[in-house]
Amino acid sequence: MRKMTAIAGAFLGLGLGLTAAKAETLKFANFMAPTHPYVASTFEPFAKAVEEATKGEVKVQLYNGGELGAGPAEQYARAVDGVADLSISLPGYTASNFPLTLVAELPGVLAEADGTETLWNHLDLLKSEYKRTPLVALWSSAENILYSAKKPIRTIDDVKGMKIRVPSRNSGLLVEAWGGTPVSMPVSEVYNALQTGVIDAAMIDGTATKAFKLGEVASYVTLGMKTTNSPFFIVMNRDSWQGLSDEQKAAVEAAGKQASLNGQQSQLKVAASGIEAIAAMPGKEVIRLTPEQAAPFDAIAAEVTAKIVAEAGDEAKALVDALAAK
């Protein structure tokens, strides 16, 4: 009897060992097209890094183009509900869940060149917002600029009365303070809205020229004033995260930080090339405001930032102070 028990125990132990060694594949939901620059520069290297660091125990399968469900704004829910193990989105699309994170998008809070590194230096101040979905990656974007369909924006008076697509609530408050009418809209709808006159302009970074083909429907781009940026994040389903070993979690975290740096680097590069590309198109104009022209925009932007931070409370002020110190 003891012999049989020992044999059974040995097989049980073997079975447990096999289970532990079994590779786990994490589903990564991406609403962007497979050709989007982020896929090759950020998501695929992230998947490869996780697999290599875990020696194949954890793999990441990309589902691009909304294969796990369409809609940029819905991607956070995909991770919450477990439809996906990982998802890419913008905290601005579900702003009520991430008021602290979105403080970092306000004009003057982060520098475009090193905003992501600054964020990661103070990531502990944001942890309270990621209890439902652990944060894997977070990066600041290129500064948002204005793509307008027919009307050039050269002064702040030009903004008055214009319907302008905004990527977040904070961006909407800025546009409203400038005298425009903010229209909340996911990026996937901007092309048609500009083309059909539903909106007059769109606030988005320079990657939109090519990635979302706004160079085809916008005649003018205005930049040079202080504006918002639109941070991106990769979040993970809580149960999927808790199912990883400590070593596997460390591998995902390391890959996530590198993905954040890759994401920002890729976006700054593509945004700059997008601005150059639309400037070279026949009949298009890139309007670069001088410091004097930008001053009225910037003065209002500073007031908007101060007001939002004050209303958000002590945590927001502490975050802004920490980010300013870098």
Roughly what is the average pLDDT, rounded to an integer? 92
Please tell me what the overall shape is.
globular
What would you report as the Rg, rounded to the nearest angstrom? 22 Å
Q: Tell me the total number of β-strands.
A: 11
Report the sheet-strand fraction. 15-25%
The separation of the N and C termini measures 67 Å
In N-to-C order, the SSE pattern is: HEHEHEHEEHEHEHEHEEHHEHH
Return residue spans where pLDDT drops below 50 for at least 5 consecutive residues. 1-21
**Largest sheet, strands/sense/barrel:** 6 strands, mixed
Structural class: alpha/beta
Summed up, the helix count is 12
For the biggest β-sheet, the strand order reads 7-6-8-5-9-11
Helix fraction bin: 40-55%
Question: How does this model look, in words?
Answer:
The protein has twelve helices and eleven strands. The longest helix is centred in the last third of the chain and has 35 residues, at 246-280. With 326 residues, the protein is α/β, with parallel strands linked by helices. α2 links the parallel β1 and β2.
Features:
326 residues; alpha/beta; 12 helices; 11 strands; globular
List the helices and strands and how they pair.
Blueprint: H1 2-21, E1 24-29, H2 37-53, E2 58-63, H3 75-81, E3 86-89, H4 115-121, E4 135-139, E5 145-148, H5 156-159, E6 163-166, H6 169-178, E7 181-184, H7 190-196, E8 201-204, H8 208-211, E9 220-223, E10 232-236, H9 238-242, H10 246-280, E11 285-288, H11 291-312, H12 314-325
Parallel strand pairs: 1-2, 1-3, 6-7, 6-8, 9-11
Antiparallel strand pairs: 3-10, 4-10, 5-8, 5-9
